[in-house]
Amino acid sequence: MTRVLMVCLGNICRSPLAEGILKSKVDSDKVTVDSAGTANYHIGKGPDKRSIATAARYKIDITDQRARQFTAEDFDKFDYIFAMDRSNYNDIVSLAKNTSDKAKVTLMLEVLNNPQAIEVPDPYYGGDSGFEHVFQLLDQATDLVVKKIESH
Ligand code: 4NP
């Protein structure tokens, strides 16, 4: 079993989409996918309505997800930890116990190898188009993540 964790700040906009999109592309008997936020603002809440609507347009249902906060124990529970932006990356790595923990963490868009797209922008304070943009970035990145996981 390969275990993948998607992490953003609030765990209500970006990482729930990343979780839902990757889940839609993998065999759940082989890959488990979860998400978390570095902040505690939204613990227990469902995804943002705009993330739910965006996922639904692509026939992905993320309504059952509930926000939780990233903890240091997640390093033991997951093989791959994907941070949506650099601030998330730094917050996650600051909790790493050793170099092996740290090595599990990468920026989600690193797989795209595109210097124009390094971070998944936080869509929380913007309009609906920000969520569509986030979806497209995550859709491209997760295609490559699937290949990476399957080659292991
Ligand atoms: P997310 O978006 O990190 O993609 O879930 C955010 C959600 C909430 C807040 C910030 C970002 N907030 O400040 O409440």
TrEMBL record:
Keywords: Hydrolase, Protein phosphatase. One of its GO terms (molecular function) is protein tyrosine phosphatase activity. It is an enzyme of class 3 (hydrolase). Residues 2-148 form the Phosphotyrosine protein phosphatase I domain. Coiled coil: none annotated. It comes from the Bacteria. Pfam families: LMWPc (PF01451). Its EC number is 3.1.3.48. The active site is at C8, R14, D122. PANTHER family: LOW MOLECULAR WEIGHT PHOSPHOTYROSINE PROTEIN PHOSPHATASE, LOW MOLECULAR WEIGHT PROTEIN TYROSINE PHOSPHATASE. Belongs to the low molecular weight phosphotyrosine protein phosphatase family. This is protein-tyrosine-phosphatase. It comes from Galbibacter marinus.
